């Protein structure tokens, strides 16, 4: 079979605890930031932008409280993923399920026991767990007491939490990610770091100081992980996607350079072990003076990550001309509309070749193995009268992206695996909707939380099963037949 994917390539899928588990206060779990957020119809985006609305609001519906009840259904769901042939399953551990307030000295045993069972089931079914330590679920109490990652003390709380889970699951989990989409803190400080910047004299100063604390924490737990189990592989995680210049005007090209640098800033530190050269001018121009403690730079340098993981949904487009650069909605990362690309129902521009471009750029930049840990198409899926979900549009999207991922590997990029986002339908992080579905598995639940929670297979379920069974050759066979 013709395939660029190496033997042992880790095909799988990805979810996050805060978007699928539900059981938001069961077995001693504390509140996560997302547990304060309403659904799309009641101001979720406004609450994301202004944390006071999240803390003070009394909303009719909180999507994360029940979600798809993966907490109860996980064995059923993992069995379906194993039926597709998953080699890996990416999920996250809910920090407040282990430390309800985030700053306790002793963990919640019931929370630890849940992940014992979850990871044991993954291993039993032949799936490597790929675990994110902090996926947008900083405990609420840490924001209340300390303003989240703006406070240096969160480094120690996070290290303590990481030590507990590393030791507990050292024989079940090999692959770890320190922070999900760590660059998100620049765009949504509340979501990315439990930080309220609304009262800050210099919001960028506060945001980058919080980011520094996360970077130091990431390096410290990378060191700790390798001490606890030298076989651990620790990765960083980036919300990726190249920014293209709108024209070949030098000003547009330079603006794209700056946008891409902003995006890679965190991974430059985590992968190379030091702040990039361009950060000095950026900090000076924005009146940012980081409080860097003794030993911080040394730990960053000594403990870079083992691999670079990232999400990729679309590329972006920018112009240096203010009259042109009227950014569109559709995603956290605003972008001009690219006239050469189609867009999803939510305005995310579809650019499969952009994945190949991004993979080459990231690999050239860091020369470390890559892991594509999120990719997919959010769409409205409507079951037929007989219950079938014919999501050919999703198959087309994923097939094109898998093909370009294979081309990047043929270009010489080392890539360990691929875990499309929301492999089972879950609550959208941004909008809190259920109708924005990504999964191969349909969950009967609507935006109002109504439904049986019954699981059913979409057409894409069978397509992805064939992709995995052929180690990607199905996609290349299609290409040859079409030629």
Automatic annotation (TrEMBL):
A Pfam family assignment: Glyco_hydro_1
GO molecular function: beta-glucosidase activity
Lipoprotein is among the record's keywords: no
Active site: 374
InterPro entries per the UniProt record, alphabetical: GH, GH_1_N_CS, Glyco_hydro_1, Glyco_hydro_1_AS
Entry keyword tRNA processing: no
GO biological process terms held by the UniProt record: carbohydrate catabolic process
Entry-linked SUPFAM superfamilies: (Trans)glycosidases
Family (UniProt): Belongs to the glycosyl hydrolase 1 family.
Name of protein: 6-phospho-beta-glucosidase
Native organism: Brochothrix thermosphacta
Source lineage: Bacteria, Bacillati, Bacillota, Bacilli, Bacillales
């Amino acid at each position: 079979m013709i395939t660029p994917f190496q033997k042992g390539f880790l095909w799988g899928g990805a979810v996050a605890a805060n978007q699928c588990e539900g059981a938001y206060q069961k077995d001693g779990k504390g509140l996560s930031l997302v547990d304060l957020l309403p659904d799309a119809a009641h101001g979720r985006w406004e609450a994301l932008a202004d944390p006071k609305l999240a803390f003070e609001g009394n909303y009719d519906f909180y999507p994360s409280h029940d979600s798809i009840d993966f907490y109860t259904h996980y064995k059923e769901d993992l069995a379906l993923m194993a039926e597709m042939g998953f080699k890996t399953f990416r999920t996250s551990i809910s920090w407040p399920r282990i430390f309800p307030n985030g700053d306790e000295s002793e963990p919640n045993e019931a929370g630890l026991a849940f992940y014992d069972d979850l990871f044991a089931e993954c291993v039993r079914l032949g799936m490597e767990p790929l675990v994110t330590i902090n996926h947008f679920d900083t405990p609420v109490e840490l924001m209340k007491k300390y303003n989240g990652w703006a406070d240096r003390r969160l480094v120690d709380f996070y290290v303590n939490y990481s030590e507990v889970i590393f030791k507990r699951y050292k024989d079940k989990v090999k692959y770890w990610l320190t922070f999900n989409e760590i660059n998100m803190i620049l765009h949504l400080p509340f979501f990315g770091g439990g930080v309220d910047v609304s009262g800050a004299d210099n919001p960028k100063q506060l945001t980058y100081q919080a980011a520094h604390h996360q970077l130091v924490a990431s390096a410290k737990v990378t060191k700790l992980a390798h001490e606890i189990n030298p076989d651990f592989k620790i990765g960083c995680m980036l919300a990726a996607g190249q920014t293209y210049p709108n024209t070949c005007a030098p000003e547009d090209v330079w603006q794209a350079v700056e946008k891409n640098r902003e995006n890679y800033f965190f991974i430059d530190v985590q992968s190379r072990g030091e702040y990039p050269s361009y950060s000095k001018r950026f900090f000076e121009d924005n009146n940012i003076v980081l409080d860097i403690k003794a030993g911080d730079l040394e730990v960053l340098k000594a403990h870079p990550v083992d691999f670079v993981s990232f999400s990729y949904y679309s590329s972006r487009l920018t112009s240096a001309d203010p009259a042109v650069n009227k950014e569109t909605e559709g995603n956290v990362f605003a972008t001009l509309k690219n006239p050469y690309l189609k867009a999803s129902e939510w305005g995310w521009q579809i650019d499969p070749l952009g994945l190949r471009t991004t993979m080459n750029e990231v690999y050239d930049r860091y020369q470390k193995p890559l892991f594509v840990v999120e990719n997919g198409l959010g769409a409205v899926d409507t079951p037929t009268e007989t219950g079938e979900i014919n999501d050919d549009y999703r198959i087309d999207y994923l097939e094109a992206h898998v093909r370009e991922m294979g081309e990047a590997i043929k270009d010489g990029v080392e890539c360990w695996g691929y875990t499309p986002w929301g492999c089972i339908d879950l609550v959208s992080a941004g909008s809190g909707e259920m109708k924005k579905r990504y999964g191969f598995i349909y969950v009967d639940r609507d935006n109002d939380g109504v439904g049986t929670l019954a699981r059913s297979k979409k057409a894409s379920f069978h397509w992805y099963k064939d992709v995995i069974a052929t180690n990607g050759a199905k996609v290349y066979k299609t290409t040859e037949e079409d030629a």
